[in-house]
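Researcher: We plan to redesign the surface later, but first we want a full-length starting point. Tokens attached.
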């Protein structure tokens, strides 16, 4: 094990990969809204179906060309990555870019290996080359990798994932994230590249792409469509409001020890079916629709292959070392999320058009009941 370097890091030029996606957008908003950061953010994103630059149109208007820059590029494109690291004198990489949807990874795993594994490897290699100095690395540089609790596999009725839980990924998505985590830690142990890593539970909140459970359910409820619950609906996820995740990432980037990994979670376990029923009540309260009529649309559909039963995170390490804990209650977070989707129909129409719509039609045109 290498000696841990200095924990304090004061980022100036931050490359956020995948900054046009759900968590990336929320992280950039969070970061540029903080008064302990006066640096620049470079959003590097390939704009796949999941990336929408319009999510940051107001940020572009306020900070574009001064503190915010958008660069369209692929994390697996070494030349383009070298260019952005050099041109913007990047000292900090916060790596969100990924293929992120488990169901898509079952239908088409190749893109997951390319972006999540090869893309992460490419970024690590580019950072290693750009930041070398003498026999080691420049002071104050940092590579933070965002990962998921899904790398740990599936829990039974009890227990929690800790930072020591052995990896046991079970979907092509989680296997590709596990591979990327191993590469990141290998760059610390082998080369001393100052990395940190976080494994977070399910996020929810504004700008969440409507293929994922919570936004999909909210929008289907508003449109009077069926509410497809996989299997028996008793799979458990630990939900965290996305802004709390952004705060955790920022805390780790600035204060986490190089070579360390941190679990991040909401301490907020819900069975899918109960969650959908609760959402029905919140949507009903806010729209005047009947909760009973919404709930009647719940349809049990074929289970996801290899569907992990339960995720639950022990996040005591980040609490103890960095003082982070979730601040938004589930009730408050769900209410904010429903209100956001009610008020942002244009955003929804935009992300559902084009590529996404065609993909859904190809793959879900005939959903098995
Ligand atoms: P997302 O799918 O909403 O966004 C991914 C973004 O990455 C998009 O903007 C997309 O255009 C971009 N991208 C994809 N391939 C790229 C490539 N080859 N080069 C450059 N950009 C590319 O994902 P998200 O939900 O925001 O997740 C972000 C990260 O957080 C991922 O690494 C994911 O594994 C991790 N994570 C997500 C959750 C969650 O609940 N959403 C939980 C834990 C960890
Ligand atoms: O229509 C649905 N019906 C349903 O029952 C969908 C889309 C999902 N589900 C279930 C499957 C899961 O048990 O809901 C749960 C949540 O599903 P997703 O929203 O697809 O999230 P999940 O598979 O848990 O993964 C998410 O959290 C961890 C993110 O997509 C990952 O990127 C992150 O790593």
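Model: Full-length starting sequence:
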């Amino acid at each position: 094990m290498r000696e841990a370097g200095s924990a304090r890091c004061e980022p100036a030029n931050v490359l956020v990969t995948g900054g046009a996606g759900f968590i990336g957008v929320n992280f950039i908003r969070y970061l540029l809204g903080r008064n302990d950061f006066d640096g620049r953010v470079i959003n590097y994103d390939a704009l796949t179906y999941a990336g929408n630059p319009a999510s940051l149109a107001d940020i572009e208007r306020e900070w574009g060309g001064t503190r915010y820059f958008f660069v369209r590029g692929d994390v697996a494109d070494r030349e383009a990555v070298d260019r952005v690291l050099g041109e913007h004198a990047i000292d900090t990489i916060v790596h969100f870019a990924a293929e992120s949807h488990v169901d898509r990874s079952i239908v088409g795993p190749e893109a997951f290996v390319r972006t999540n594994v090869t893309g992460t490897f490419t970024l690590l290699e580019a950072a290693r080359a750009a930041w070398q100095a003498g026999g080691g690395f420049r002071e104050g540089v940092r590579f933070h990798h965002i990962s998921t609790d899904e790398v740990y596999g599936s829990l039974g009725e009890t227990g929690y994932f800790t930072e020591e839980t052995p990896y046991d990924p079970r979907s092509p998505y989680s296997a590709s994230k596990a591979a990327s985590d191993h590469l990141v830690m290998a760059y610390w142990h082998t080369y001393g590249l100052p990395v940190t890593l976080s494994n977070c539970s399910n996020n929810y909140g504004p700008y969440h792409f409507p293929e994922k459970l919570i936004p999909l359910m909210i929008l289907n409820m508003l449109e009077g469509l069926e509410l497809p619950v996989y299997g028996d609906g008793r799979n458990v996820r630990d939900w965290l409001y996305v802004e709390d995740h952004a705060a955790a990432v920022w805390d780790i980037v600035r204060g986490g020890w190089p070579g360390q990994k941190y679990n991040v979670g909401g301490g907020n376990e819900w069975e899918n079916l109960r969650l959908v029923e609760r959402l029905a009540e919140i949507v009903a309260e806010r729209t005047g629709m009947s909760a009973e009529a919404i709930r009647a649309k719940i349809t049990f559909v074929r289970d996801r292959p290899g569907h992990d039963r339960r995720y639950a995170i022990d996040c005591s390490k980040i609490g103890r070392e960095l003082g982070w804990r979730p601040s938004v209650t589930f009730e408050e977070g769900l209410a904010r999320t429903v209100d956001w989707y009610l008020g942002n129909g244009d955003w929804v129409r935009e992300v559902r058009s084009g590529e996404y719509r065609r993909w859904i039609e190809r793959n879900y045109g005939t959903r098995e009941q």
